[in-house]
């Protein structure tokens, strides 16, 4: 797989503060209803009898709350303190504090969990944040480490058919800064590349939002 290593890491690192500022200004930036991918993932996880769920990049918790309401024990990570505090407040308000553990963590660092701690992992558009391919390789290995044998990883990512792909400012690899947000776009080759140690169950393409955004929903099983 080809790699352009000329990535502007300084720009990527500034995304943390940008998201902090955005979440502070907009308490429910993505709305309060659960995303369609979270609803579909819930059906998949329930069918497979999964209970212990790790959510990465929980944002302000719209999917986190939905998972907890559906009987999952949810551990959610986000690298924005504002998002984590919002999730904790929502969980307390809705009587879900015992079902949700929210932690501030940068997924470029090792996940703070023992091996084989979770039945399943979910993330909605985390993979297409300001992460380089090498950082995504590391993250994929970490997810595999903390999943139990047969554990599922469901993630969504904007793909190279998306209208925003190739627009804005190129920041290296398939990474573009569009309207101050840095986005890493995926093709199927990258999905295959990051699936090392997993069986690919499905790669579904779907649309979301007003553009519309075009995404892959990837379902992996730990081998």
Automatic annotation (TrEMBL):
Gene Ontology molecular-function annotations: methyltransferase activity
Gene Ontology BP terms: methylation
Pfam families named among the record's database cross-references: Methyltransf_25
Residues in Methyltransferase domain copies: 54-151
Record keywords, A-Z: Methyltransferase, Transferase
Matching InterPro entries: Methyltransf_25 (IPR041698), SAM-dependent_MTases_sf (IPR029063)
Name of the protein described by the UniProt record: Methyltransferase type 11
């Amino acid at each position: 797989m080809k790699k352009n290593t000329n990535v502007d890491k300084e720009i990527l690192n500034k995304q943390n503060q940008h998201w902090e500022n955005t979440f502070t200004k907009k308490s429910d930036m993505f709305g309060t209803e659960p995303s369609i991918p979270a609803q579909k993932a819930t059906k998949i996880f329930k069918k497979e009898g999964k209970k212990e769920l790790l959510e990465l990049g929980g944002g302000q918790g719209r999917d986190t709350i939905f998972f907890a309401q559906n009987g999952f024990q949810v551990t959610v990570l986000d690298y924005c303190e504002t998002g984590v505090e919002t999730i904790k407040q929502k969980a307390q308000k809705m009587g879900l504090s015992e079902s949700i553990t929210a932690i501030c963590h940068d997924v470029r660092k090792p996940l703070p969990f023992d091996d084989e701690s979770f039945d399943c992992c979910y993330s909605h558009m985390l993979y297409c944040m300001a992460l380089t391919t090498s950082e995504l390789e590391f993250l994929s290995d970490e997810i595999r480490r903390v999943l139990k044998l047969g554990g599922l990883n469901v993630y969504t990512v904007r793909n190279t058919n998306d209208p925003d792909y190739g627009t804005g400012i190129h920041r290296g690899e398939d990474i573009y800064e569009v309207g101050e947000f840095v986005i890493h776009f995926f093709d199927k080759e990258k999905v295959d590349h990051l699936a090392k140690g997993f069986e690919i169950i499905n790669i579904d393409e779907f649309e979301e939002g007003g553009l519309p955004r075009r995404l892959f929903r990837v379902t992996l099983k730990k081998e």
